[in-house]
């Protein structure tokens, strides 16, 4: 468990990477280089998605509404299955999505061993609003603080909680805790939006020729993107639940009815095997409209959701991260399966 939080002790020593933190700022050279990169990548994305491939977006209005008109100061977190190295940016080739707008375009977490291997790549991906993440370094690595800062500024952050590309069509793998840790630690509870897709594994297959990817994305492929419904986590309620469970565990241990191992506060994992878990209900609200999102956030604020909660130990934080992650897994599995089903129906027709 400690390896998940702080990184594997057996991992190789971290190498020096060029992250160009100053380039990530919107004020870099008056914002002109960023706008140029976003405009160019956005045009290529729409060219490949709309003209060279047959991309269909389902419930896309929900994403457009949250990107353009969510409550002021409220961060947005989109989560998606990870089918290819080009999921981002190709999945954003949606008509009406302001890809060239530096203020509205998404931030995303990007693997430093792929996107930040030299100064040129680092400069390009930093202009493209990418935050370098070292895989295996734990959820408290330095650049996770940068991602948290973006959320605290009310920005849109996209993540792939599976952590790496998987082109197998089975159930989603166990998700990493990074997304949940950002949601739990944000000053304002973010809106979470699951997005499932199918077909990008055909546009950029991992094993195209001799175990390698193609030099350019393939064309004439069917791609389906399914946008789910927004979700909001009641973080103060989850914190209180973690404290209550801790107290209950200590009380049971002190009664002598169980072994002293109860002092470890092994909170229930709520189906953490992630094999057909039941939908969870504690501290989460699924919403069907932007107005419901605004009303729910206002209610949470009125009820004291913006007031600091109780101090938590590491075991309590683990319980919260697990709980949020499993909610994400359930919601993301639903939209991913819908995208695959739609894609299969299109292929059979």
Automatic annotation (TrEMBL):
<keyword id="KW-0808">Transferase</keyword>
<dbReference type="GO" id="GO:0005886">
    <property type="term" value="C:plasma membrane"/>
</dbReference>
<protein>
    <recommendedName>
        <fullName>Tafazzin family protein</fullName>
    </recommendedName>
</protein>
<dbReference type="InterPro" id="IPR000872">
    <property type="entry name" value="Tafazzin"/>
</dbReference>
<dbReference type="InterPro" id="IPR002123">
    <property type="entry name" value="Plipid/glycerol_acylTrfase"/>
</dbReference>
<dbReference type="Pfam" id="PF01553">
    <property type="entry name" value="Acyltransferase"/>
</dbReference>
<keyword id="KW-0012">Acyltransferase</keyword>
<dbReference type="GO" id="GO:0006650">
    <property type="term" value="P:glycerophospholipid metabolic process"/>
</dbReference>
<comment type="similarity">
    <text>Belongs to the taffazin family.</text>
</comment>
<dbReference type="GO" id="GO:0071617">
    <property type="term" value="F:lysophospholipid acyltransferase activity"/>
</dbReference>
<keyword id="KW-0472">Membrane</keyword>
<feature type="domain" description="Phospholipid/glycerol acyltransferase">
    <location>
        <begin position="76"/>
        <end position="200"/>
    </location>
</feature>
<dbReference type="GO" id="GO:0008374">
    <property type="term" value="F:O-acyltransferase activity"/>
</dbReference>
<keyword id="KW-0443">Lipid metabolism</keyword>
């Amino acid at each position: 468990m400690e390896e998940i939080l702080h990184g594997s002790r057996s991992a190789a020593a971290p190498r020096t990477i060029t992250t160009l933190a100053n380039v990530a700022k919107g004020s870099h050279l008056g914002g002109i280089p960023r706008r140029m990169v976003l405009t160019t990548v956005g045009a290529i994305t729409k060219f490949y998605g709309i003209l060279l491939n047959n991309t269909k977006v389902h419930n896309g209005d929900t994403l457009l509404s949250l990107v353009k008109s969510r409550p002021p100061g409220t961060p947005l977190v989109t989560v998606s299955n990870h089918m290819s190295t080009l999921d981002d940016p190709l999945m954003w080739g949606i008509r009406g999505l302001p890809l060239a707008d530096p203020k509205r375009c998404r931030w995303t977490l990007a693997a430093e061993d792929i996107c930040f291997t030299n100064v040129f790549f680092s400069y390009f991906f930093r202009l493209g609003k990418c935050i370098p993440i070292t895989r295996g370094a734990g959820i408290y690595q330095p650049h996770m603080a940068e991602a948290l800062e973006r959320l605290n500024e009310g920005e849109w952050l996209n993540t792939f909680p599976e952590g790496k590309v998987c082109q197998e069509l089975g159930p989603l793998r166990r998700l990493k805790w990074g997304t949940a840790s950002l949601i739990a630690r944000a000053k304002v509870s973010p809106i979470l939006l699951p997005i499932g897709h199918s077909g990008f594994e055909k546009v950029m297959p991992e094993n195209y020729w001799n175990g390698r990817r193609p030099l350019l994305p393939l064309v004439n492929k069917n791609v389906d993107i399914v946008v789910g419904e927004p979700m909001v986590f009641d973080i103060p309620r989850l914190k209180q639940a973690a404290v209550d469970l801790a107290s209950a565990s200590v009380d049971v241990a002190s009664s002598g009815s169980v072994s002293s191992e109860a002092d470890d506060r092994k909170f229930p994992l709520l189906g953490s095997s992630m094999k057909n878990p039941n939908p969870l209900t504690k501290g989460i609200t699924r919403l069907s409209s932007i107005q419901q999102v605004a009303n729910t956030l206002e209610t949470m604020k009125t009820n004291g959701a913006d007031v600091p909660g109780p101090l938590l130990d590491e075991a309590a934080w683990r319980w919260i991260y697990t709980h949020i992650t499993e909610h994400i897994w359930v919601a993301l599995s639903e939209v991913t399966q819908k995208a695959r089903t739609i894609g299969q129906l299109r292929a059979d027709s």
